[in-house]
Amino acid sequence: MASRGREQKDEVGLGELLRQLGTETGTLIREEVALVRREVKEALASIKLATALVAAGAVLSLLALGTLTAAAVLALGTRVGHGTAALIVGLVLTAVAAGAVLWGMRRLRTVPVKAEKTLESLEETKEWMKDLT
Q: 7, 12, 71, 96: most buried, per Cβ within 10 A?
């Protein structure tokens, strides 16, 4: 009789453990999804900033081409000729614009596309689940 009562306690204990495992697995999955969302949100914010820098560089280069080109060509034109002055000014403005675009592109390359923290956590969870079975 005592043996039978013990078996019932073990079965209840096992059932409770399985219920807890199910509950905690669900909680773990929800936390992993929340972590992915946070990482993606952070990555998108970085992409947004880098894209704004690229756009600002493009707009500023257009304004520079319109305003500074005329002024610089007129100023240099009296010394080296207007054709040569236009070429010099155009090359300088192109270099500045390219620098702004390259700066923004470099920033875009540094943004992590993978959710590294989540992938590591999922790998740890996978190993943990293997150990349980």
A: 96
